[in-house]
Predict the structure of Mn-containing catalase.
Amino acid sequence: MQVLLFITGEDVKLFYHVKELQYHAKPERPDPIFAKQLQEILGGQFGEISVALQYLFQGWAVRGNGKYKDLLMDTGAEELAHIEMLATMIARLLDGAPVGDLETAAKDPVIGAILGGMNPQHAIVSGLGAMPADSVGNKWTADYIIASGNLLADFRANLNSESQGRLQAVRLYESTNDRGVKDMLSWLIARDTMHQNQWIAAIKELEAKENVVVPSTFPNHLEKREVSYTLFNYSAGNESATGRWANGPSMDGEGQFNFVENPVPYGNKPKLKPAPPYIHDTLPAVIKGQSGKIPPSMY
Amino acid sequence: MQVLLFITGEDVKLFYHVKELQYHAKPERPDPIFAKQLQEILGGQFGEISVALQYLFQGWAVRGNGKYKDLLMDTGAEELAHIEMLATMIARLLDGAPVGDLETAAKDPVIGAILGGMNPQHAIVSGLGAMPADSVGNKWTADYIIASGNLLADFRANLNSESQGRLQAVRLYESTNDRGVKDMLSWLIARDTMHQNQWIAAIKELEAKENVVVPSTFPNHLEKREVSYTLFNYSAGNESATGRWANGPSMDGEGQFNFVENPVPYGNKPKLKPAPPYIHDTLPAVIKGQSGKIPPSMY
Amino acid sequence: MQVLLFITGEDVKLFYHVKELQYHAKPERPDPIFAKQLQEILGGQFGEISVALQYLFQGWAVRGNGKYKDLLMDTGAEELAHIEMLATMIARLLDGAPVGDLETAAKDPVIGAILGGMNPQHAIVSGLGAMPADSVGNKWTADYIIASGNLLADFRANLNSESQGRLQAVRLYESTNDRGVKDMLSWLIARDTMHQNQWIAAIKELEAKENVVVPSTFPNHLEKREVSYTLFNYSAGNESATGRWANGPSMDGEGQFNFVENPVPYGNKPKLKPAPPYIHDTLPAVIKGQSGKIPPSMY
Amino acid sequence: MQVLLFITGEDVKLFYHVKELQYHAKPERPDPIFAKQLQEILGGQFGEISVALQYLFQGWAVRGNGKYKDLLMDTGAEELAHIEMLATMIARLLDGAPVGDLETAAKDPVIGAILGGMNPQHAIVSGLGAMPADSVGNKWTADYIIASGNLLADFRANLNSESQGRLQAVRLYESTNDRGVKDMLSWLIARDTMHQNQWIAAIKELEAKENVVVPSTFPNHLEKREVSYTLFNYSAGNESATGRWANGPSMDGEGQFNFVENPVPYGNKPKLKPAPPYIHDTLPAVIKGQSGKIPPSMY
Amino acid sequence: MQVLLFITGEDVKLFYHVKELQYHAKPERPDPIFAKQLQEILGGQFGEISVALQYLFQGWAVRGNGKYKDLLMDTGAEELAHIEMLATMIARLLDGAPVGDLETAAKDPVIGAILGGMNPQHAIVSGLGAMPADSVGNKWTADYIIASGNLLADFRANLNSESQGRLQAVRLYESTNDRGVKDMLSWLIARDTMHQNQWIAAIKELEAKENVVVPSTFPNHLEKREVSYTLFNYSAGNESATGRWANGPSMDGEGQFNFVENPVPYGNKPKLKPAPPYIHDTLPAVIKGQSGKIPPSMY
Amino acid sequence: MQVLLFITGEDVKLFYHVKELQYHAKPERPDPIFAKQLQEILGGQFGEISVALQYLFQGWAVRGNGKYKDLLMDTGAEELAHIEMLATMIARLLDGAPVGDLETAAKDPVIGAILGGMNPQHAIVSGLGAMPADSVGNKWTADYIIASGNLLADFRANLNSESQGRLQAVRLYESTNDRGVKDMLSWLIARDTMHQNQWIAAIKELEAKENVVVPSTFPNHLEKREVSYTLFNYSAGNESATGRWANGPSMDGEGQFNFVENPVPYGNKPKLKPAPPYIHDTLPAVIKGQSGKIPPSMY
């Protein structure tokens, strides 16, 4: 890598891809079963596709620029590089993956285990490439991502994503004996450590500016304040009454937690009006238990 | 409501439903357009179905009992009651909703606005009932919910859900002039205030016990510590270098944040091995730019 | 249509398509808003794609041939023809559909209503063709269909499909003033009348052979017979105690309905065992409310 | 369970959860493969989430109260308790589930079978908890549920759900040797027996009031009566002509079934008009087989 | 097959089903693992359901009739017959499929491999029938299909479908030792050969009429011609500069390819305006790094 | 942009983001209705998310490096920049978007049109930001993308994507009067012109190396050659017989096209064997029309 890529700012590209990986992604040996499992942190609910697109969409939506937007773009771009590392690792875990049917499986227990345990789409669909899917084969969906325009809300989403993501990476670390895979996971786990720390720092900063309830810009008096700090007991047993959330000042410092052991309903038994005839719901008479026969003249 | 429902513990039911609502759900007047919008907090990503099932699934998965499980069940059961309030409100907003085509729409601009702006499935599919769907009609999916077995991770998910949910409820509050709808929303917004406070309290308690990085049970030395507190600059501009997340001790107290302006790749340019012939990927020769013709003898 | 298509049985084709429609599909005038609504019975949960593929998949799965399989194939093939009728009608309702933005909409209230009320994908994606989607634009999914290999179960699914489908067609009939559309709907509604009658007839025949509980082949004594005919009261109020389902002989003739007003739990309070350490769930100590700090030696 | 939970009606809660299970949910021994299979009746198309939410949404939409609504709420609340039983059972079947890669699998055939046959998300994602997903890992979706506002239509949906659900529970009963699992399934199967009986009873009552075709409120003469009782032969072979559905009085008592062996089309060959130029569909000239070159002046 | 089905054109049916298969679909022996894999080309992204419905929807949308429409209907109807062949084959591969749990699996490695490797829904849900799903169990969705009203665009979609489809069929051919399965696949592979040839022929014909860029009807001068034939280098390394796509006349004959090694941005750094207060996004002050505290008077 | 970003190759980052846009994305004025429509080419089936991830996944899966991989990475990275342009444009079209209910809508027809025609999630969910969704609100899904490991197959997918994508961009260009939006679209349309040309060039090169049928590596003699070039007439009318695809040498130069007007089935009428009793499908006796009553002893 001796070439001079950018000489001056005039050469600024946009999204720009460099072929080197952020970190090594080389397993000791192929393992198509583990390739299937590893898909979880590539294309699952908290996989790298989710965090990459979540941070980018949050960043693109920031109204006004500054350090929060820059932080989102920095991290979003890094997660794209993580997708690439995982895609590379998975392709290598699939190197030379066998194909076959029951006859093949019956001949050799190890091949049989692979055929039963690998994702068949890794052979049939992607031709031994990684897929934008999770460890059971569900395709990635934007249902997984969150961007609301409110940074405190979204940084909490991000902290959750990095918490779930690191948890899954750690579980995968525990599931493999391959030192190459463990090495790459130790990198991703460390990055998740940073990202949890980073979002906590950003959250604390915003909470100091805005207080802790999102959105901070809704006037308190417009909400039903009498139940803003109340824990209602809707499950038998009152262990929950002993927690911090039921005692002492509320976390936003604007009220006192309290516990209601036997909550009563504040509303009435609802009764909905009949639907108009053109909707053809069950007739009111029938609901009441009477006959719903339409007079023959109607036919 | 004068009947004695439970005399002794022997009469303990399970999930038990009472017909009264937790709080009033009566609009001043029907409004099918707003009914469509209100679906967001019933059946959207952060609607009441999501929080109800998220808390219940987390609660059912707690290994061991105690106050956290009780808290999850209390709150999960309450969210079921919120679904019912919203379902009731939506049905009432749909009271007597008109149906029609362009001819109907052209005759009266207000009817026309309703026909264009309401969700057609409210008439055709549900017969003026609420649907398990969001404000554009996407059906609710369990892709929205999170339950990992790790309570600190999950309480962060919950804090995010209540933050996004309250934000959406507030936006809906701003969108309506109906005092009945506003009244109900002021209840839900207050409950979200409590639920944000409650999860913050629970998170703080767990963080005090476990420190802030999830999962806390993975030995530090197994991760690549040299990058555990580093912000890499992958987006032009270095505004992000000025944040707390790039300076001072890390939030977990176990390192120092640092900023790398010009990060270098730690990995090589990956080169994947060819696939076996039975996979029928593009041949290595073709990838290299040579002919891929198969000798006639192969046919 | 004077040509002789098939001379002898040797010319038997397979699925074979004839260009004529089963029935007319010509609206009086274009109406892009109604085109959007009509999508419901083409590509919605109970639209024609659903019944066509449901009947065909059930038919292909029949183990052994005979009249039930033939009936399924007859009806499945007819539903394919209904898809074509609806696709034709929708394309004609979209004839010359306008496109435009707010400026266009602001100029003419009727055009404005169309732009707001039509499905934008009818212009942008399908180029004024029908889409395999419902009235809010959700794409058709095989989640909608049912085929279990048990004909009594499946015919009940079919009866439901035709009931929901006719209900939706009737609601659409009520929503339009266009005589061409009403004419086509009156055909589809009549066919749904037949199909409801037909599945009822088939169900009665199977129930006479097998009794009413599916599957009939599971020996009674293996189920917990003491609760096979019991209505448990899990919702306050006991109006449900007055129904036929709580009194008299059960519908399968093998028991007596009964009502339990105050049901008690038969099971214990469950307590799950801790997860193994490699799963990294919250530690048992933490669940119990104790510290979850890992000794430094672990790091 | 000695505590007095409710003293008077004033203490009426809403949805209320009691920690005891409706019935035992304890396997003899862990079995992660069966845990995966059992997910089908928790989070599959006809699993307990589906029936719980289906009955609740139907109940909330009933316009007017009475015994049908009460029945729906009773049953919906019970199904919530069934979700809990299954979630508990699945968590216990996952107790101590192993994790690992090919190396682990190759060492011990039984561990290998578990690793290949279990759902990897049970370890990586849920941390040995049940998931809101089916036996292949598809997440639960509200596409599965039905609530139309027409009770006869919806009770048919319910009868189908309980038929498919009991069929699946029976198949799972046949698939396990574990007496604890069989015991729990024998409870669920019995409840499905009740629920089938119950919906049949309710359907019969409504049919007696409304006749059998849904919706009963659409005047007969508006449908194309000449084809309301006709079976068209669209599949070679006429075995279907011998069924009850092709002979004798129709099930609604308003017509005579008949069979048409060689049905003719009632409609013409459709020909759609060209799209406007701004839609950029293929030009009419090109469709006719002529050149579609645009004159250079257009560029 | 001695019966005379159609005597004259007056007997023309619509979609018509004949019970014979287009080609044999009989395996040498059951193989539930292969049944699962074979689902890919029945209900996967490029399975037979996809091509059948894609061609039919394209055909129904053709505005004007003629040879292209006829070709689409011919091929769409054939693909329905392919669904039937695959459904039949899969049902036979499932003949007598075992069910069981870990205990069953542990007793016999071959049964164990089947239980781990088969799709559990083939037993629990479909009762040994084929499902409208792919090889990992994702249900078929209309997200897979394409119909735009522009035939050149759509025939390119079709060529892609037949290319991906044949590739998958070939990979499955390589995966089985069963001569019956191979025989059926050799038929489907040959038909895909025809269908690729056929769409190439149709594409060449349309390209000759319209030139190669879709849509051909958009005047050139309205696009930003200065970048219509430019390859921008957004990935380090310039191997791509050596391809035909970066040198010589463009394929549409209307320009010259060129390569820009160091592309510069043509746009500015975007800065979005603040959202209105009723949206409750993060406040501009907070974005800028100032306090976001709302004055107490607001509460 | 005066800063020197990269001095030497040692500073090579990975995915790297620059804040300038590839091209301007500024509308003349806000238009929330058009913002909704524009979502189609951001998050729809052929939107920029689809092409970005499709090219990147194809690139990461290339086994061996070289110009094809480089081309994929160049283009994939560019599409990321297009997502950013569209996200920026959509946010600006949403500037100051109104919220409101029927009362608000009734007061001002233009506001009413906006409330009816805009995507409500743009206000409630994203806070006036772009969403990863299409023009009717369906969330983006990886079901849209294709990467098979076979470059000729995949480049055909790419050519289709760019054809559908340019068609949609052109339709949107026709739908707006805003010169700023038209300006940006004219850029995207030009880039799609390039990308169509580019994939055509790459396809021609691969076809020259491999011939036209994918995969080229499957020996001809293993497919059923007698039907490799045959058009079967499965739709009444034989206009399709007149096309190039039914006459003359096949496009792969290895056969002759031919047309079969009255195709016969090559397979038999399939008859499936009964399922084993533990599957509880309908009993063979019942299928045959006999009684399915189980002897009482079985209960």
